[in-house]
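Example 9 (inverse folding). The structure is encoded as follows.
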């Protein structure tokens, strides 16, 4: 009999992860489910709902054979042997824990639906990042709501570690797969069943098994450590600008220490993405609830430094432009939270753009993957609203002060300054002379991702700010002439 897998939630996690399982396991039928009809229609079309290098090839190769996308949630869950839950767990915007705790409404809804429709034993797999002990809550919801004879559930935690932009690579060749479960005979059997799925392409020694709580916490801890590294190097970038040190040289020097390692040491205008901030705040909330106040404060400082980094960038732009950006055109290059994705969730560009809009700037934004509608919606939302679709609103100021451009050169024409907020490869090879000639003078570049060759930019005539780099004399003393 063919093993049947259903996944509730066809997002950035559920879609690519299930596509990879279907691609690698010819003997498994995988159905990805979502309540959002438009999203499912897009997964079934030629234009997939998310941009991810290599994803199309994988989906198109197995769609209709081992991989299916559907809105028939109850039917497909009822038929499945393994049900992954990959729905979103947004930060709560109101009520107890607002601004920190994860909103588990969708999760609980999924668990109740599974209990209602099941007639046979199932393995339930937590794929979304969830607070520690979620499995216990899910077990309780399931066991108290079973309606039909024959239904029985084993809960596993199997967190996803893929990063956007490299999802297919990460899924195909993961550093590790973690499967946590109850250490009972039926829990261990469930762990083995899921292990057998991954073992079809992941070397066995890279499939780590653990108890449920270690697996749930491992995901939060991994994201907290990664984010902490970025906040650490970003805090050093502020120190570099004040002392004349260069953060890229520092990253190289400290990264050469094999105990520290070279990865994830790129200073930036701030980390974004749907996970880092949300997971840390969630962990902070859990720590507070357990009476671990100092530990909560320690991890919260990672988010504080990230917010400071975005604010610092806006302040430098404003102070450099003679303390006013009112009515000035500023080109924003890059809006996605990192390169090779169209995802804008928690992108630092939102805070930077809002900071500049608050000061009256006119923004001309270019991003190769983010749509105009997405940018305008993001800039019209309050914090954390992006993951709560029902609260969307449109702001008139955004309409009036944002122009979305289809090329870098159009965005920069007539601008006073260029801000680089995403490290898209195409920004490494810009024709800086052409850009400079089309801008108001003095012309500024504020490189929040260190992608532009600062020396060359200065030669062309720009006043150049590279994040964490020695400051251009013009920026420390506006009375000094431009570099050339
Ligand atoms: C989400 C979370 O953000 C992340 O923390 C978690 O680890 C995995 O789930 P992602 O896949 O990026 O990650 O989210 P998103 O792209 O928003 O996808 C979630 C999907 O679930 C949406 O398409 C939504 O329509 C769907 N959903 C939500 C359901 O199908 N049913 C529900 O009840 C709620
Ligand atoms: C992250 C984790 O890496 C992944 O394991 C987890 O499953 C989900 O969260 P993601 O958010 O998709 O993945 O991307 P990631 O590459 O981690 O980048 C997150 C943010 O950090 C981006 O805004 C990126 O630009 C920024 N970043 C990353 C830096 O500023 N400097 C770095 O050196 C690395």
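The amino acid assigned to each position is listed next.
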């Amino acid at each position: 009999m063919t093993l049947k897998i259903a996944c509730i939630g066809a997002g950035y996690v559920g879609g690519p992860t299930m596509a990879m399982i279907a691609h690698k396991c010819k003997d498994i039928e995988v159905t990805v489910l979502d309540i959002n009809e438009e999203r499912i229609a897009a997964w079934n079309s030629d234009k997939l709902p998310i941009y991810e290098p290599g994803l199309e090839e994988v989906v198109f190769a197995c769609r209709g054979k081992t991989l299916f996308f559907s809105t028939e949630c109850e039917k497909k869950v009822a038929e499945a042997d393994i049900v992954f839950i990959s729905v979103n767990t947004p930060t709560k915007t109101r009520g107890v824990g607002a601004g920190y705790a994860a909103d588990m409404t969708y999760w609980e809804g999924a668990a109740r639906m599974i209990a209602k429709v099941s007639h046979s034993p199932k393995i339930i797999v937590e794929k979304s990042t969830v607070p520690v002990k979620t499995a216990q809550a899910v077990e309780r919801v399931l066991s108290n709501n079973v309606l039909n004879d024959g239904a029985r559930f084993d809960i596993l935690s199997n967190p996803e570690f893929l990063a956007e932009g490299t999802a297919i690579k990460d899924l195909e060749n993961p550093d590790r797969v973690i499967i946590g479960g109850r250490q009972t005979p039926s829990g261990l059997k469930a762990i083995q069943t899921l292990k057998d799925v991954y073992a079809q392409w992941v070397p066995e020694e890279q499939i780590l098994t653990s108890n449920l709580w270690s697996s749930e916490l491992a995901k939060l801890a991994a994201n907290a450590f990664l984010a902490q590294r970025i906040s650490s190097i970003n805090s050093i970038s502020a120190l570099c600008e004040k002392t004349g040190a260069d953060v890229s040289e520092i990253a190289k020097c400290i990264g050469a220490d094999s105990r520290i390692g070279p990865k994830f040491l790129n200073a930036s205008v701030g980390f974004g993405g749907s996970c880092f901030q949300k997971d840390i705040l969630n962990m902070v909330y859990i720590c507070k609830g357990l009476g671990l106040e100092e530990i909560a404060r320690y991890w919260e400082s990672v988010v504080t430094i990230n917010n400071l980094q975005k604010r610092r960038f806006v302040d430098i732009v404003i102070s450099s432009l003679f303390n006013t950006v009112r009515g000035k055109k500023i080109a924003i290059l890059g809006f996605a939270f990192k390169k090779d994705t169209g995802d804008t969730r928690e992108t630092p560009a939102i805070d930077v753009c809002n900071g500049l809009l608050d000061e009256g700037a006119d923004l001309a934004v270019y991003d190769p993957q983010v749509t105009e509608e997405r940018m305008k919606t993001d800039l019209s939302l309050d914090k954390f609203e992006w993951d709560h679709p029902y609260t969307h609103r449109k702001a008139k100021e955004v309409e009036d002060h944002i122009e979305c451009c289809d090329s870098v050169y159009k965005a920069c024409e007539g601008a006073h300054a260029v801000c680089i907020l995403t490290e898209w490869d195409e920004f490494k090879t810009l024709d800086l002379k052409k850009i400079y000639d089309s801008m108001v003078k003095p012309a500024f570049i504020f490189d929040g991702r260190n992608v532009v060759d600062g020396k060359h930019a200065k030669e062309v005539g720009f006043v150049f700010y590279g994040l964490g780099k020695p400051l251009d004399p013009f920026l420390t003393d506006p009375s000094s002439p431009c570099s050339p």
